[in-house]
Specification:
Blueprint lengths: L15 E7 L3 H11 L12 E2 L7 E9 L4 H13 L4 E11 L3 E8 L1 H17 L14 E5 L7 H7 L7 E3 L1 E8 L12 E9 L3
Antiparallel strand pairs: 1-3, 1-8, 2-6, 4-5, 4-7, 5-6, 8-9
Helix pairs in contact: 2-3
Length: 203
């Protein structure tokens, strides 16, 4: 298996597409997978691009393409943000959709702390020199499926509306890299996610 980045690099190192996130533990992922199984039988389910369970996450702040030179400062500021935020209870809860384009699961528990962590993850990037979009009120969601066109996602949200996942203690802030499909891969190929760094919450 060849390893990337081990040889001498020509020119500048490529930027990485990164975001900060809270990742659900295996038990929460298993519970959500079981709840989603019946949704795959609903009319139109085959036309949706379902996200991979191993990539499920609650995005805190999306950074886009981050130059290599910014990373040390970003790491330091995210570590500080994590240490200033106490662990908090969280669970996957209910569902919703963004128009006819995306189906998502929501969150319940320590949402005030989750929002605070999102604000700190956003501020960390700004202070590290990354150009961030205008800050909007944080709405936690875990993307389950996307549609290429406008789809009627209401039957899917209705089927998942009463879902209550297992409670866990969110104790880590993760920095995740999104590797987008390269041209030439089959249509419908999804991004692959890899955790670059993670920091424990609390002092």
């Amino acid at each position: 298996m060849s390893s990337h980045g081990s040889g001498p690099s020509s020119g500048t190192a490529p930027a990485q597409r990164l975001f900060a996130a809270v990742l659900p533990p295996a038990g929460a992922v298993a519970g959500l997978r079981a709840a989603l199984a019946p949704l795959h039988m609903l009319p139109g389910a085959g036309d949706l691009r379902w996200t991979r369970p191993d990539g499920w996450h609650y995005t805190l702040a999306f950074y886009g393409e981050v130059p290599e030179g910014v990373l040390p400062e970003l790491y330091a500021r995210l570590e500080r943000a994590a240490h200033r935020t106490e662990p908090f209870p969280l669970r996957v809860h209910g569902a919703g959709h963004f128009g006819g384009r995306a189906l998502w699961a929501g969150a319940a528990g320590g949402l005030d702390t989750l929002r605070l962590l999102a604000e700190r993850a956003d501020a960390a990037a700004r202070r590290a020199g990354l150009p961030m979009e205008e800050h909007r009120r944080y709405a936690p969601h875990l993307t389950l499926a996307r549609s290429r066109g406008e789809a009627d996602l209401r039957p899917f949200t209705a089927a998942l509306a009463g879902f209550e996942g297992e409670r866990w203690e969110a104790g880590e802030l993760s920095l995740v890299r999104s590797d987008l499909p390269v041209s030439g891969v089959p249509v419908g190929e999804r991004p692959r996610y890899e955790t670059v760094r993670a920091w424990a919450l609390g002092g």
